[in-house]
Design brief:
The termini are far apart. The protein is an all-alpha fold. Helix 6 packs antiparallel against helix 7 and helix 9 runs antiparallel to helix 10. The model has no long low-confidence stretch (mean pLDDT 77). 66% of the residues lie in helices and 2% in strands. The radius of gyration is 41 Å and the shape is extended.
């Protein structure tokens, strides 16, 4: 407790170090006695004290800890490390501020944009440090959830930098040169954000593909459907189009920008081929063989086009080329499978139709007879018997159709064909006077 107090007060690091070492020695000695649960608890306490001891050594100057090592210590789990993380964040902010003093420009596709705002420099430095975790040599060993969390932190840092740039742009006044520099810096940061967004969505695609053909061991585990991958590729296509529009905007475009725009178009072509492949899979699962066959043929055409363009580039990514070659082979094999299945289903269609027609019953005798209480009033059957699977019903509802008597319509039609005799000779005729005949 004394060591934690001095650690929080940022003073007497030597005394704090001595207290932490004494506590570690006590826990190590206690861990030698007692049951297994007590030994595990003492070992956990020793591991929680280790980061604090190393940090005290760093503050005294007896340890040459690098920034990456401090960050690795901060990622350790434990209930007693909250205070250490707060101290570590303060140290990292101070280190970024010192590094930001030497950062005067931001380089992007042959452009150099000056950075005058200290907050903007600190945010960009923070994002660049986080990018080392996802682009470094140990990036593949990181779990997917941690990589996604790192991407979220990168987005937050770059968005904070953009907000500072736009605030400076609003207060720039009539200085055209300053406005041009700030607008260019905002465009560069937006392009970097677009690239990281594509990388994050590609990570989501790789996670979804790993779950696509996975056998579900746990009932609660969600299995990916091809439709979900189609939606992810829709997002990637939109991201690539937005990034291409952003880079293509403006005047006096440099060769690096033109090359980057072509790269975005090529990425869009690759994403279209992969999206079409999983769209064909979804149609195949729905039993639509014709549509699936046509889409697989479209995948082969798009993959061939993308491969030809990639092979013309000097700096082509070999991983993307291998991925397209695999996609080309799978689409060809799947198109053959869909063609064969369509022919088999067409050949079996008459047989299946005849089987279905042969099972049609006009009388309904094949249906299971249900017992109703109104038909069995003299028979006792338990309504709560466990062996009775269906619930008891009192009467048929809706009732079945029955023939109902009504007046015949033939007589009504025959009435129109009956010829009645004339009755004029039996009717009385009115006698009128001479004046009545005149006024007639």
């Amino acid at each position: 407790m004394r060591g934690n107090l001095l650690f929080e007060q940022d003073q007497n690091w030597e005394v704090a170090l001595k207290s932490f070492k004494s506590a570690r020695a006590v826990y190590e000695e206690l861990g030698k006695y007692g049951d297994l649960e007590n030994q595990v608890l003492c070992r956990e306490r020793v591991e929680e004290l280790e980061p604090s001891i190393r940090y005290c050594l760093h503050k005294i100057g007896e340890s040459n800890l690098q920034t990456s090592e401090l960050l690795r210590i901060g990622e350790m789990e434990g209930p007693a490390l909250d205070l250490f993380r707060a101290k570590l964040e303060a140290v990292m902010s101070e280190a970024r501020s010192q590094q930001a003093a030497s950062m005067t420009e931001f380089h992007w596709l042959g452009h150099r944009f000056p950075i005058s705002n200290a907050k903007t420099r600190v945010s960009i430095l923070k994002a660049q440090e986080l990018e080392k975790d996802i682009h470094g040599p140990k990036a593949d060993s990181l779990p997917a959830d941690k990589r996604l969390a790192t991407f979220d932190k990168i987005f937050a840092a770059y968005n904070e930098a953009r907000s500072c740039i736009r605030n400076d742009l609003a207060s720039a006044g009539n200085s055209e040169s300053m406005k041009d520099d700030l607008s260019g810096l905002d465009k560069a940061i937006g392009a970097v954000l677009g690239q990281r967004t594509i990388e994050r969505n590609q990570l989501l695609v790789s996670i979804a593909i790993s779950k696509l053909n996975k056998v579900r061991d746990d009932k609660n585990e969600k299995v990916t459907k091809p439709e979900e991958l189609v939606r992810l590729y829709d997002l990637l296509l939109q991201n690539a189009a937005d990034l291409s529009d952003l880079v293509s905007s403006g005047r006096d475009r440099k060769p690096e920008e033109l090359a980057f725009a072509e790269e975005c178009e090529l990425k869009s072509l690759v994403f279209r081929a992969e999206r079409c492949f999983y769209l064909a899979k979804s149609y195949s699962l729905a039993g639509k063989r014709t549509e699936a066959y046509a889409l697989y043929c479209k995948v082969r055409f798009l993959a061939d086009t993308a491969l030809k363009e990639l092979q013309n580039l000097k700096t082509a990514d070999q991983a993307v080329i291998k991925e397209l070659q695999t996609l080309q082979k799978e689409s060809r094999s799947n198109s053959c499978i869909e063609h064969a299945l369509a022919i088999m289903e067409e050949e079996q269609a008459p047989e299946k139709l005849s089987q279905k027609i042969s099972t049609i019953s006009l009388t309904g005798k094949d249906k299971k007879l249900e017992k109703f209480l109104m038909d069995n009033l003299d028979v006792y059957e338990s309504a709560v018997d466990a062996s009775v699977k269906s619930m008891s019903r009192i009467e048929r509802f809706p009732p079945s159709f029955q023939a109902a008597a009504r007046s015949p319509i033939v007589l009504d039609l025959a009435y129109n064909l009956i010829e009645c005799p004339s009755l004029e000779n039996r009717t009385k005729k009115d006698k009128k006077s001479f004046l009545g005949r005149l006024w007639r």
